[in-house]
User: Fold these one by one.
Assistant:
Number 1:
Amino acid sequence: MSSPAARALPTGAPPDEDLLEVTDLVKHFPITRGILRRTIGHVRAVDGVSFRIAPGETVGLVGESGSGKSTVARLVLRLLEPTSGSIRFAGREIAHLPAKELVPLRRRMSIVFQDPVSSFDPRMTVCSVITEPLEAQGISTGREARRRAGELLELVGLSAGDLDRYPHQFSGGQAQRIAIARALSTDPRLLVCDEAVSALDVSVQAQVLNLLRRLQAELDLAYLFIAHDLNVVRYVSDRVCVMYLGRIVEQGPADQLLADPRHPYTQSLAAAIAADPRSGVRRRRGVVRGETPSPSDPPPGCHFHPRCPYAFDRCTSVVPVPVAAGPGRTASCHLVGEARGA
Amino acid sequence: MPATVPTPRSAAPLLEVEDLHVEFDTPDGPVEAVTGVGLTVGAQETVAVVGESGSGKTVTALAVLQLLDGGRISRGRVLWDGTDLTGLDRRALRRIRGNEIAMIFQDPMTSLDPLYSVGHQIVEALRLHSRMSKRAARERAVELLARVGMPDPRRRLDSYPHQLSGGQRQRVMIAIALACSPRLLIADEPTTALDVTVEAQILELLRELQAEYRTAMLLVTHDMGVVAETADRVIVFYAGQVVEHGPAADVLRDPQHPYTAALLEAVPGRETDRAEPLAAIPGAVPPPRAMPPGCRFHTRCAMAWDECARDEPQLYPLSGARAARCLRHRSGTAVPVATGKGA
């Protein structure tokens, strides 16, 4: 894996160095009512998000439900069209590229979801599941595609002898390996893992995380790793972005960010996972109150202010901008700016 | 806080499960999901049942309340305060459920009725188990909602389940469960579907209420972090059996069954070295119909030797009120499980 320390600041790196560069990304979904589907408001699912991923790097995206992290994944892959903002992938602006022009770029980016079995057609064999993207992209067909599918199965720790079985005949962990094989079939540079290990049992989760690590080293893959489990994200990621209600509130190198969180929301997330069964460390109590408000009606100013123990006047009206919070780190909090004068 | 003060426990356990076997019918004949499980919960004690999917932990919890859907207890006893629940008729069972033992589930939507307001459902629960006027029950419902930390409790009485967040729904379930001051609360993965910040709040709430209502808790979970935080004792399940039990702090610090040790090692923690692969457990849990001979864990165990594939281990008692189902303990002496712990 690339060393996080060697990575440049999230701001200031030459753009051509990055595989993915997302700037001020916004996605609003209309809320409609009645048979005429009149728009009565908007869900601001993604509300001005910027981050970068270098080739071979893993960027973790953490957040709780309603944070917009899965919408970011779908925007990056252009499964959704953004309301505004820029997505540069491999040097090309793709935010509003028409579907036809997206086709050749789609080979280079794939996604693995939380529940692979439900995304497979139950009548398709493992072989068809894996070769479908190859044939759809016109990369290979027939015997050649089948040979590639066999190779991919071996690569993810299954056997080419499994090609003619059906996905539902496999355990959850094996099915996720099949999903990874399919995602890798077109030789992508970026793999988006959207809660890819969240539904797996602990023992199997470790196997799949180890597989993802090995594949990254062998294939020089970049990952956008989306999860709600902070410890898992810290373990796999070089850098971490923390999302809250559609915005990135803090980003930086994984170890530093969790060892010394600067944004009050990250602090409460870190406190919530502080329990460590092996060392007997218990969770710090009462760090954060309340629940995430609805993204259709987010609080003004800093979205986190109603739950923040440190909120003051400015937080209720002024949206905080990302400010430097240490080497390679930013935090969007009025207090971070004040305290550090940066 | 009072929750941290140890409370004296009575000698006789409140709940005692003995040699429980549970079978499910399948097109290919009956399958045993739980094989000879025993456990006890003392008054005001918190016992965690931990295991992965298919371990039999939820089936055991449901069997206690005779709530098995499609399954049956084929052997064993469930003693509640000395009475065997497996022999009771439906009326007697209903009196115990809710009044003495309450249960909360992972997904409150499955147990809340979407057609009725939250207030209606709490009032129903209150009036089902104690004589109370509608008006008094409504007032009590407001108190309960306030107690479980529901914002704006009086207005929330008229809300429907779908209008609440996941955390709020779980608070309503807890309010209903506590409506009749049960002596035992069975909580099946109560925080698994919740966000981490909300999970922290709900666990803290359960802890407070337990101290306040002097309720014992049987907590079913897959999360060792939740065990560390809440349990007095822990019972580790694997493939339908108890493989280890003992005081939670001791079991987590110094596991005596290789599965417990491996489970703890497999989870990335705050200090896990990012440069090293995780200590994954190879393979998968065997399906009930294809249990390996000997120790059920031996095919995945890093410490297995010949005997493990042949001899079926018993739950061997160890010092410190502990036990482990591993042949290394057959002589009765504790051998530390070799792990990378503390390295």
Number 2:
Amino acid sequence: MHDAPARDCGRADVFCEPRKDYTLRHNTDRILVSHAGNLPRPADLNKLLAARDEPGIRSRLPTAVQEIVERQMASGVDIVNDGEYVKAGSYTGYMQERVTGWEALPIDPGVPRKRAAVAERDRRQFPGFYESGLWMQGSGGPIRPGFFTPGAPKPATTERVCTGPVKYTAQAQIRSDLEIFKNALQGKAAEGFVAALGPLSLGAGSRNTYYPSEEAYMTAVAEAVREEYRAIAAAGFTVQVDEPEFLTSWMFYPDWSIDEYRRYLEFCVQIINHSLDGVPTDQVRFHSCWGSGHRPHVNDIELRHVVDLLLKIDAQAYTIEAGNVRHEHEWRVWQNVNWPDGKILMPGVISHATDLVEHPDLVAERLVNYAGIVGKENVQAGTDCGIGSRVGHEEVVWAKLEAMAEGARRASERLWG
Amino acid sequence: MTDRILTTHVGTLPRPAAFEAGEMPLADAVVDVVRHQAALGIDVVDDGEFGKASWTGYAVERLGGFEARPLEAGAAPLARGAERQQFGEFYDEATRSGTLWYSTSAQVLTPGAPTEWVCTGPITYTGQSALQRDIDNFRIALATAHVATGFLPVAAPASLEPNRRNEYYPTDEAYVFAIAEAMKTEYHTIVEAGLTVQVDDAWLTALWDRIGIQIGLEAYRDYCRLRIDALNYALAGLPLDKVRYHICWGSWHGPHVTDIPLAEIVDLVLRVNAGAYLFEAGNVRHEHEYHVWEEAHLPQDRVLIPGVVSHATNVVEHPDLVAERITRFAQRVGRDRVIAGTDCGLGGRVHPQLAWAKLEALVEGARRASARLWPG
């Protein structure tokens, strides 16, 4: 760790302070531990959120974020976040509120849909399973109360359509988010990351009627989210770009061939990199996953088909699912990849896909496998996806994070001796 | 001797909707499920356990000497355990919302509450006609589907004992051996019918969390040893290759952090006079335990049937992962001594479409492992 010179983040209207000591850190004598984002919220905060009690939420957030930082550290997490408390709602919803340019319009049956629904390829193969609604259940049982509405989802009657200039409007909000997190980290040894939605996941699903082309539209989306990324980086944190659609779009276009999908991803890489323009690469962690629904996933695009494109994204670290039974075997894919110098790989070594808690020896074995390929300095322990709301109970979340930290400790012992 | 990895599973399979609704005769449902398994490429099939209410519950109807009594409040010590204390809120919520299993049907649950079965007289086997019905249905189904043979699951004495209090026999030992003596009829009848018997003993392992942690490892191992001796008594005289023995750590969707490590009991498991051992190895709590077979001595005449697909997640195992799991075992005990299996029965534990998709992944994974293990 060292002091970096003060730098200008390039914008006067975002939270901008001299950058301190943050660049993404490599492991020096052990494997560092982080996770993909959301964490359980305290019951009283949930109540305030449900009641939309804005003053109550504002006064509770700082202490809640402080508590979640401390809880992560106590569980052995090195690179912590604010639990995504400031984005309560959904991982896409908060950004939709922060960027304007879309309207919810009644669906016009005369206009073809831009793309198919979530998990469409699986849906065609497992119609009964999808009709049951169980795909948003926990790891095994029926729908968990409050988690998702049982039964087949109702067909949508409105769609989001881009009808005006896409603009980032949340300068004050992000400033407040970052201040709260910064205060919570004050005097603590942990490093911080802040997750922010990727441009595809924000805009690619909506029809554009305003910009002259899809490219112009997505470029505008990239420039909007970029403001948030720059603010996060300027505050000295790692920006985690959450971009599940890099992998899940395969489902949205169920009739595409792999070549067609790769052509689309070339475009996506351009858009994502445009959104990262002006954000120091050594502060960027890119997260993608195959969708966190508890569903078969048998039609997920295989990593080997897209890994070269993934690495074209201007990030220092990549974090993807590797801790569930559909993607666990893909650690071998990295054997065929020329690992770029200094990049960090953060595979999911614990997962939301089961309520069973990973054995630390399994976690260690997974990490050692990766270390053997990309180097022990370059592998960090992560989760498949945000784990807070996706397993049966918060008790399971904490047990899993502790298992991950213990597994990283065991792996470190083996790797550093 | 074969030139590839064979496939099987642990027992329960999804029941056809019409059968569940009482609109399809049992015999037809069994034909249906045997055909389905054969069509998928499962080598060693069963009757889906369609003839049984649940994996241990069925025995209530097949054993004399027990009477049902209302359960006294707080008198079910086995409903509690170390993990239920550690993860109290999780278990409360999962119990309340019914999410511990995919289905709360009797197929996967051990019945009992609020009734308790108490042994009040000599234990006898009275299930001959129910057993014969199951055997006949299965044999007809095998012939219809042109499958040579298969297995029928039964419960082990140690798994019939919990929740069935003894007031008649003077000692635990006498009680357990009496259960074994009665169940012996069932085990032998199945083998005499030309089928393989699979003895399910999930309680033996799961009891570590409920009573073992309190009494300590040595006392728990003594407890297990006595029950296994009783089982061996019941199995005496049966050819090894007609007997499979299944343990698991309980199939509910919970954390399982207090599961006893396989290494602590593997010698006891191998003490059972069976030709094949089935155990969980396809979930995140037990996957790493394939290393146990670097140390444990598997006698030459025995084979392993590890779980390489699991009920523990809705995500369907990738065939390459299945192949990798099989290969790990093959590298340790030899390719001729590994059969690909499931962690536990899939019926009632995941959605039917997922159960079948997992068995398909199992077959494809075994094919890929075979290609690697028998090159050229």
Number 3:
Amino acid sequence: MELLVHQILSGLATGGIYASVALALVMIYQATHLVNFAQGEMAMFATYLAWTLMQAGVPYWGAFFITVAAAFVVGVLLERIVIQPVENAPILSVVIVFIGLLVIFNSVAGWIYSYTIKPFPSPFPQNSFLDNKYLSSHDMGSALVTLVVLALVFVFFRYTPLGLAMRAAAQNPVSSRLVGVRVGWMLALGWGLASAIGAVAGIMVAPVVFLEPNMMGGILLYAFAGALLGGIDSPGGAVLGGFLVGVLENVVGVYLGTELKLTVALVIIVGVLVVRPSGLFGKVHVARV
Amino acid sequence: MNSMRAPSSAPALSSRQIAGIAVLLVAACVLPFVLGNYQVFQITLALAYAIALLGLNMLTGYNGQISLGHGAFYAIGAYTAAILMDKANFPYWATIPIAGFVCLVAGFLFGLPALRLEGLYLALATFALGVAMPQILKHKGLEEWTGSSMGVVIVKPDPPGWLPITLSQDQWLYFFTLAWTVLLFFAGWNILRGRVGRALVAIRDQPVAAQAMGVNTALYKSLTFGLSACYTGVAGALGAIAVQFVSPDSFNIFLSITLVVGVVVGGLASISGALYGALFIQFIPNIADQISKAAPWAIYGVFLIALMYVMPSGVAGAIRLARRRWFDKARVAAPEKAASPPGRDVQV
């Protein structure tokens, strides 16, 4: 029982990371109805940037905020330069462009930083007040950061005019344009935010999985599973889904062995898509023929 | 993507195309006697890739079902061949059809839930399959057969005794793979140019209209998934025998992405494109490796994005375009000679 509680709690901690990446995926999905396969690699690249800054002597939180800001700018630029030309292309072309981005980020990171595994510091010192019987201080700290990010995103979308404009642009682009919302830039902004959230997730997970170009592969898969489980068009659902997947992953790891963790994600993804494609909280889509 | 040519009915191949294929076949038979053993081995692998690409192209190019996880079926084919040879002492040639059949069933079964998934979601599900595959292969429960992360070593087959000439092992394997390639390309061409091919393209472009016209969409889609997996599985088995080794980590998600790269570069919805794509994914990494270990993938990525912008129909499309321009010019010069037979330029 003790073990189970422990696993559930540490599942919540990793689930927080999945929730962040799932949230980033949902942000882009809401705006463009596309799933960004390159999300994980973008986060990985941002994490390398943070590592470089720290190697150059920038203090941890300085590097953290510079990286998040840089990730935001890169996200906006990517949307404007790479994604926009294929926005109305068939879905296959868009998926291929995403795969292209994934591969480019992965290989450029490997090229610059080599494929050797690097340790990444945690901002939360051991034996601090966050430490307790079940969770390390990094687990607690990263869960806290995740919650703060989620709260900020919620406040941004719920209470700011810009957030309102972004929601409007996603929901009804034509009418939004008529009332003066610059829809194209709203999409770019969505990409920027997603990229920034991904960067936070990358920096938070790097001390656990260590820094290497393929570190986000599995995490992206869990984030997919989380986003689908919660409903790909529901930010709150995706966050909950991320936490659920984190817990499921850890509990299954106890009973079935850790070698099947990725398969769990596969089963969740296929299961959700087949049984309830809209997820737990998503809207059911009815297509007119 | 609307400018792809329909599988045409009337004259199956023009005399020029027949001549081209004949030259290609003769060249393919002469090649192993000119090149060194290592190069012959590389071309053998390229042929195996070509079969896999044709399989993936049936699914993604012709039928519009996006698969980012075909490396998983390549792995199943490779492991089927390896386990049959290693544990059950099957002769190598008998493992190929079995690998194809196992993958046909596996693909059909995965294709059933895939029926409910469209576009993006199918891409997601297959991506998950591709990422999870190495872990499944490493699982304890299968260790007895798969050898876990140690993999399985295969003995390289000797050329049979009934051959009139003596061949090296690599040369024999090359001809063995070439025979399968020719057979499967011929079968694929026959499937895609007729009624079935038209149904696949119709499902891709207008699913509702196709169904209204009496195409059994569900059956065609899951059968295409099975057939596509079957081709890829045969390719996996041939590739495994050529490499003489299978291990879980050689079938990771990047193998699946490599296959997608091959299909896109070669040309979506094109049979000859599979050959161009296979040569690309076999030889570009060798050349680019000299720059950096990461260079092949950077090049792949740039090619993927650039082709989507400027040439979505890939190398095959570019060649088709160039050929048509060239003959149009010839037609202007000598209008009575170059009247193209009816039905050859049907656009979808």
